[in-house]
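anyone seen this seq b4? input:
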Amino acid sequence: MAEEGQVISCHTVDSWNQQFQLAKESKKLVVVDFTASWCGPCRLIAPVLADLAKKLPNLIILKVDVDELETVAKDWSVKAMPTLIYLKEGQVIDKTVGAKKDEIEQKITLHSAA
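predicted toks r here
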């Protein structure tokens, strides 16, 4: 597992599977950030997620580029970027579509405290 306080980028399906399994086992809040290099709103939200990851030790953020890992994006029915999916122990508990900074911060704060 990567150091605490990091956003973990998954560049291969194997890396995704490994990091997702470790994240599930951690019992922490997991936020999967589906992004794309060409997506302007994704670039705006990236520093917000990095900051939250540093502040909240019970948070894991996995970053997935939809162009690199198309199959993973399809498996999660991602249609727009950024899409953030919030999970606890592998179960989806919430979702945000779009670079909605306030909503993302509220959901992470709410779910990481639970």
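The beta strands are 7-10, 29-35, 59-65, 83-88, 91-97. The mean pLDDT is 92. kinda curious what u guys think
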